[in-house]
Amino acid sequence: MAEGSIAGNSAGGVPTVKSIFIYPIKSCKGISVTKASLTPMGFVWDRQWMVINSKGRMYTQRVEPKLALVQVELPLEAFSLGWEPNKNSYLVVRAPGMAELKVSSAKPGLRSDGVSVWEWSGSALDEGDEAAKWFTEYLGKPSRLVRFNEESETRPVDSHYATGFNVKFPDAFPFLLISEASLDAVNKQLKEPVKINRFRPNFFVNGCESFAEDLWKQIKINDLTFQGVMLCPRCKVPTINQEDATRGSEPTETMMKFRSPEALEVDTSTTKYKGQPYLGQMLVCEDNKTNKGKIVSVGDIIEVEKVFPSYANVAV
Questions:
Q1: pLDDT one-digit tens code per residue, 205-264
Q2: Which of 105, 120, 148 is the last residue of a domain?
Q3: 4 torsion bin: left (phi>0), alpha (psi -120 to 50), beta (else)
Q4: pTM surpassing 0.90?
Q5: Which residues fall within 8 angstroms of residue 193, CB to CB, at 6 or more apart?
Q6: What is the pLDDT of residues 4-55, one digit of tens each?
Q7: Do 131 and 230 lie in a common domain?
Q8: What is the CATH number of the domain that holds 197?
Q9: Contact 124/147 with Cβ under 8 angstroms?
Q10: Contacts with 55 (C-beta within 8 Å, 6 or more apart), sequence order
């Protein structure tokens, strides 16, 4: 397949950023924004916070689906260049049956040690007893809200896929991109369509063919260069209804019929992700050390500069 041959669609369109989603608290509801500034570890505020159990281990929707109902809000200006939190700016947290929680966006002075996300362990900034009490009551078990400590901690991405890149509290990489056409293709196979919030992308794009993003090796958005490093293996989260936190078998059950490693004929000999369907491409930003002061906006054109020749060449 020639470079650039999948950039458009049959109507002659070009890939464009349709939506940008930020998830301030890991596994809680996302925020749709029209623009967002970048940091060396991803979008500003994305997965900046995380809820942990009494042993410091992350809580996610996989084990606590009720997190899907937790809404978060930040000041709109928080996504602009140069904005600094102050004593009058807050992360506002809401959930059914709970009073509103306001967490100062200024950095807390407390620290939690032994905080862990998958294989990584380190310290994090603790948001205090009020936030801990709120999440403990909501989840019905001891919980605390912590913030990634950028000043003292480093969490590298999996070196099997990329080196020299760091993240805060996402599962694996700084960015996830999914196309609208791919979501439509999945929904055509389902009895009941699902929304994009089941898949939690940062970039939701249109103007390309379904699953074209699978083969995007290098793209450019607003003069920022992104590398496709891994197809995204889907866990249990897409099977959780984001409106009522109920579990089901779809869309995973249907996706396994045409988006499994076997169906795509990808090489799984070196991966730990087996028996999961794929949707979306995970990205790193090549300009990660110099992208402070850079913004990506809805409507930005995506230039597809390099593509993988086939699924056999794509990392999984």
A1: 999 999 999 999 999 999 999 999 999 999 999 999 999 999 999 999 999 999 999 999
A2: 148
A3: left
A4: yes
A5: 187
A6: 344 444 445 799 999 999 999 999 999 999 999 999 999 999 999 999 999 9
A7: no
A8: 2.40.33
A9: yes
A10: 114
